[in-house]
Amino acid sequence: MAEPTNPSEIARETLRQLAMRRTPPTPENYLRLYHEIAGTQPAAAPVPERFVRRIAQQLPRDTAERQRLARQLDQALNEADTGAAERALDQYMASLSAEKPQAWNELIATLLRQWEGRQLGWTSARKRESLERVLGASDPNTLYTRLQALLRAWGQAPVDPERPASGDTPELPEQTEQPLQATARAAPAAPTTGALIAADADPTELIDGLRELIALTMESVLPAFLAEHPELISDARLIANATRSATDARALAVVGKQLRKFAHRLELTAADDSEVRAGLLDLLKLLLENIDQLVIDDQWLGGQIEMLRDIVDKPATPRLIDDASRRLKEVIYKQSQLKHNLSQAQLMLKEMLAGFVDQLASFAESTGSYHDRMGSCARKIAAARDISEIGHLLDEVMTETRNIQIQAERSRDDLSATRQRALDAEKRIDSLHKELEEASHLVRHDQLTGSLNRRGLEEVFIREAARAQRHEVPLCVALLDIDNFKKLNDTLGHQTGDDALVHLSRVVRENLRPQDTLARYGGEEFVIILPETTLEQAEQTLVRLQRELTRVFFMAGEQRVVITFSAGVTARAQGETIDVVLARADAAMYEAKQSGKNRVVRCKIAQEAGNEAF
Ligand SMILES: Nc1nc2c(ncn2[C@@H]2O[C@H](COP(=O)(O)OP(=O)(O)OP(=O)(O)O)[C@@H](O)[C@H]2O)c(=O)[nH]1
Fold first, then answer.
1. Are 305 and 288 in contact (CB under 8 A)?
2. Phi/psi at 591 (5° precision)
3. Looking at ligand 1, which atom is closest to the CA of residue 593?
4. pLDDT tens-digit profile of 146-186?
5. Cα(88)–Cα(94) distance, integer angstroms
6. Closest CA to 525 of 576, 579, 585, 456
7. Residue in 584, 439, 447, 556 with CA at minimum distance from that of residue 505
8. Contact present, 514 and 448 (Cβ < 8 Å)
9. Which atom of ligand 1 is nearest to the CA of 489?
10. Residue 481 C-alpha to ligand 1 middle, in angstroms?
11. Residue with CA closest to ligand 1 atom 27
């Protein structure tokens, strides 16, 4: 038979052969036999669509370009547009081959540069945290891309004007009236939108940036405010992860839902927290208002109560609370010592009184037995028959009388000594009571001017230095010395000199910010601690104080007296103790005196040290 040539003949022959060869008539057997008869090659089996889609989904979308091409491929497959799908796939493959090798050297150099930089919203702690997270990437490509994104975020953040890079003098506003809370919480603050998303970025980059921003906020910012709600912290972290891996619209929609739910829970939690805070504050107020009903003698607590009332009446700042707790602890310590002395003195008084009563009792006993013996002598004398018997009895009477006289004298001396000791003890108890009352107010303050004394100054300096270091902000110290104070004392009297010191402290305190501290360093020398202040601003502050002192006269009776001072200001360099800083300020103050008084001199050395002045 002639070879079948047209398709219907081949098909017929194929069916015949299947029957003759007793081959099961499956589509595969039919196809194989058909090609055998036609002498053709079977076409490659069509690839199932599901399989193609799966491959498309697995394509890495780790750059904006690859994301765009992969999306085009998805769309072409959805629309069953094979031509468009092929084109998208070709371009995708070309993007892979065109990829430059990752320039790790450049990336690391940029990392070093950006690490040193001072970007708004990116404190060192926050940088370290985000870097650690990026370093957790599972493969080098992801690591490279994430690191790139992170550095782009750092690089796009505006320069932080309050945190100088090395070599810059930071420019702070003249009166940094910023509440402390804001400063303390600056570290975990969310980066500004501009820090992650440039306005001219393409939409894909914008979405990437926004996703990263949401993830960072959930991961690093929120936990700082949710310390008491660990379950919310772990949910926030889960959402951060979900946000990072949400690459298509559906996944983003899921994240959106989670975020909405989470925001609602946050709202409820915040409302509960604020209710608790308000409740506690009310409780404290109630306690403070009624303290006199609760304790028998509230005199010793006067200072502490006043301070606590001050705190609850004003909006509290960490600095205020820190200061108050330090002062409370100190007064509590001093008072516990005084109370110990007081109870010792009271015990002594009690013992003395007991001794006094014992002595009286034994004296009464001796006089009682003397009385008995005298009675027996009298009876013996009455019964005596001759004078020799009476002489013997008289000797006995004399001896007993002398003994009782000696004993009476001794008792009198003892009693008057005991009385004196009791009076002394009473006096001591009185003075301890007074000290207890004063301890509440005077522990850290100079009694004449009410400003801090040296001890108070040292404590404030240590606290401010630590704070400045922690927040990487400058800290300045000024030493001022009243000009020609000896002359003022000599011409107007020592009392007027004292009044002048009080006047100066009042004017200075009234013209400083609440966070600044004035301390009397000794004699007519004062120290001012200026937190979060650059050297230049510190100098300006001192000049302003000088002006203020010439404006607000000191009145010595009817006489107007202008008080001036010379000052040295310096910035604290990292790690410096108060002695080192004050020695520098003192040298500058000396220079101010030498160059004509009523001046402020900035310490030159500190300017260099001030590069790291925190
Ligand atoms: N009234 C009064 N005088 C004090 C007090 N402490 C120190 N002084 C006096 O302050 C004076 C300081 O004198 P000096 O050290 O010569 O300084 P000055 O006269 O101000 O001279 P310059 O510092 O060079 O301007 C001394 O006479 C001290 O007795 C105080 O608490 N009250």
1. yes
2. -60, -40
3. 24
4. 788 788 878 777 666 555 443 333 333 333 333 323 233 33
5. 10
6. 585
7. 447
8. no
9. 1
10. 9
11. 486
CA-wise closest residue to 418 among 348, 347, 346, 341: 348
- 148: nearest Cα among 63, 71, 28, 215: 63
* Residue in the block written with tokens 């930071």: 170
pTM for the predicted model, two decimal places: 0.41
Q: Which residue's structure tokens are 């995708």?
A: 92
ipTM over 0.85: yes
User: For residue 567, what are the β-bridge partners?
Assistant: 480, 600
| Residues with catalytic roles | 524
Secondary structure (H, E, C), 34-103: HHHHHCCCCCCCCCCHHHHHHHHHHCCCCCHHHHHHHHHHHHHHHCCCHHHHHHHHHHHHHHHHCCCCCC
Q: In 10 A of CB 321, how many CB atoms?
A: 12
Which residues line the pocket of ligand 1, CB cutoff 6 A?
481-487, 489, 494, 497-498, 501, 523-524, 593, 597
Residue 587: strand, helix, or coil: helix
- pLDDT tens column, 471-526: 899 999 999 999 999 999 999 999 999 999 999 999 999 999 989 999 999 899 99
How buried is residue 190: exposed, middle or buried, by Cβ count under 10 Å (0-12/13-18/19+)? Answer: middle
The alpha-carbon radius of gyration of the chain (Å, integer) is: 46
In this prediction, residue 534 has a pLDDT band, given cuts at 50, 70 and 90, of very high
Mapping DSSP onto H, E and C, the string for 190-250 reads CCCHHHHCCCCCCHHHHHHHHHHHHHHHHHHHHHHHCCCCHHHHHHHHHHHHHHHHCCCHH
Instruction: Give the pair of three-digit tokens for residue 309.
Output: 């009332």
Q: How many whole angstroms from 597 Cα to the centroid of ligand 1? A: 14
Residue 281 is given by DSSP the state H
In total, the chain counts a number of residues equal to 614
- Location of structure tokens 């800083």: 581
CB atoms within 10 A of CB 427: 11
